Amino acid sequence: MPVMDLIEQFTTDFINIRAVIIALIMVGLITSMTAMTYILEQRAFKLRRPKFTHLIHGIEAASVIVSIILLRQVFWVMNSGDVLSWGYATAQLTVLLFSLYMMQNLAVELVNIVMPIFFYGQGMYMGRGWQYVAVFITMSLLLTGSIIYVSHHQASALDATWKYLALQIVYGGTWCFIIWSVHPFDMWYTLTVLVVFTIYMAVIRFFVTRVSNFVDRFTRLDQAVNYDELTGIRNRASFDTASVDVFGFYEKHPNVPITMVMFDIDHFKRFNDQYGHMTGDAVLKHVAQHFQHELAKQTSRGEVFRYGGEEFVIIFRGVDAQKARQIVTTIRNSLQAEPLVYNDQALTITVSLGISALKAQDSDFDSWFKRVDHYLYQSKEAGRNRLTIEGATMALK
Length: 397
Prior knowledge:
Keywords: Membrane, Transmembrane, Transmembrane helix. It contains 14 helices and 8 strands.
């Protein structure tokens, strides 16, 4: 293709009002995806439930697909039913690669791997691409390799300029040849488009690294403020915040049961005195993480907090006292059945519990809290390794 024709085609694809509109739409999509990813990932981190995390990853992958479809529809409308444009291709590739760096999950990785197959399938349906199937297969394998590498080395790829540049060239270059295998553009023009894509992704890198740094700083701050450093579960400050929210929710929805469980580790001082404070810390961490892990298996309506020392609190929303008793009894039984092995010592751990539902006559959160605390004390006074629910104490086997 003559140089003037190349310049004219480049101008048509990238330097016009439609290209500016598409660029703005692409930036809007990337911004929306970033905000959505941040909100969802923070929610997943706080809940720490595998099923919810998988759901979030599916939503993120769906957002990538929706963004690609939206870009296609915009190009379709702006180009009178024609989407055969390098500007369109570059916008799509930018969104796809951005999703790999930002979302960092298997579902998005699979979307990136499947997309060229879908694209080539469309080309074959239209009667194109058969003569260059070897090019497509070769480039698809290289593309898949680059996608897998990016998915598992986002941080190092973003930090190292040369590595980032190399990955953009491989990712963009393989895609260019995949597109070429269906729509054989002039090779020099194809390489020019690769340069444009690399520039696009340089801008995206600037954006992603700063957003990632901001998110990391915010996450570390949130961890420091709301999570216990030793056990990794929510701390007293987070509990105080939750208590206000829970009581306010109950005032608006008095028919929704809310139950509090308080428990502490039986004879915790003995672990410290007999085995040392490091063992005591290991016991605290073991109990906290066991309750959090098992609680997530049983329900999505409970949240565990470290209130202080060896004392913990669980707040259940939408769960009455009897159901809460069943849940925590099951968790407590599995805790006793799975001793903590620390420094070649098998340590059997039991807990005492107090349980009570929030009631209409509770004038404030403190009156409810004091009642549950009294029930916990009642379990300990009765000999420990017991559970008291609404004033009735029972031994635990």
